[in-house]
Amino acid sequence: MTTRTPLMAGNWKMNLNHLEAIAHVQKLSFALADKDYEAVEVAVLPPFTDLRSVQTLVDGDKLKIKYGAQDISAHDSGAYTGEISGAMLAKLRCTYVAVGHSERRQYHGETDEICNAKVKAAYQHGLTPILCVGEGLDIRKAGDQVSYTLAQLDGALKDLPAEQAESIVIAYEPVWAIGTGEVATPEDAQEVCGAIRRRLAELYSQELADAVRIQYGGSVKSGNVAAIMAQPDVDGALIGGAALDADEFVKIVRFRDQ
Ligand SMILES: O=C[C@H](O)COP(=O)(O)O
């Protein structure tokens, strides 16, 4: 049985400017100790404009916290106004990049095909994608959450070689639970995260499926994280609102103490 190190990643969304980012990461780094990093991988996903400041702080103080971006262009360079390439993120020494967050899908029309191109762009530049999948409320009410989410997974992983897929992180985020306070039950999270792992085994191999980390995201807080993390196929969380409060985020990282 593969041991998967949990990944707790804070997605700041469009919050905290570069000065606030420095203060926030400093607060996290003062609070987190070596034993936290031994038990859990900790990452933050700030806005693009914060990344250089976060990089300087992390490099300068040799912090163990990882960081990444919330999006990546499917293109390498050129006339794509407003976009940020994988090469630019790699130059900032990002580890992770979120791909296909439901807010990108909803407000920016990102399809599974675009997510597939972005996942490939991330690997091309040595970045690890955190691929977000998950159903909306109508799909959940119809009981189609597993088939819907697996179709998103299939689309985003199309033609992705096993050597790349083995390091991907999948974030299962039911859209109805994002920012609503409506957290999925631990059983809801396990149902879909378990199905994702079985699909990875079908698409690749059991060994690869056992190695991939699958996060849950959607109204995760210190008060509910332990029950979610107790599920066998949940290997971490993608945290939005609660990641903006450093004390709360640290408590989530220390989910075993809750
Ligand atoms: O990326 C994070 C998710 O969208 C969850 O956000 P939330 O914790 O505010 O519900």
Question: What do these coordinates show?
Answer:
This protein has 13 helices and 8 strands. It has an 8-stranded parallel β-barrel, surrounded by 5 helices. Helix 1 packs across helix 13 and helix 6 (112-124) packs across helix 8 (145-157). The mean pLDDT is 97. With 258 residues, it is an alpha/beta fold. The longest helix is centred in the C-terminal third of the chain and has 18 residues, at 186-203. The protein has helices spanning 18-31, 34-39, 51-60, 86-91, 102-108, 112-124, 137-141, 145-157, 162-165, 186-203, 206-211, 225-229, 246-253; strands spanning 7-11, 41-45, 66-69, 96-99, 128-133, 169-172, 213-217, 236-239. Strand 3 (66-69), helix 4 and strand 4 form a beta-alpha-beta unit. It has one domain (7-257): Alpha-Beta Barrel (TIM Barrel), CATH 3.20.20.70. The chain is 45% helix and 14% strand. Glyceraldehyde-3-phosphate binds at residues 11, 101, 173, 178-179, 217-220, 238-242.
Short summary of the structure?
With 258 residues, the chain is of the alpha/beta class. It has one domain: Aldolase class I (TIM Barrel, Alpha-Beta Barrel).
- Which value, in Å, is the CA radius of gyration? 17 Å
What strand order characterises the main sheet? 1-2-3-4-5-6-7-8
Q: Would you give the CATH topology?
A: TIM Barrel
Structural class: alpha/beta
Low-confidence stretches: none
Largest sheet: 8 strands, parallel, barrel
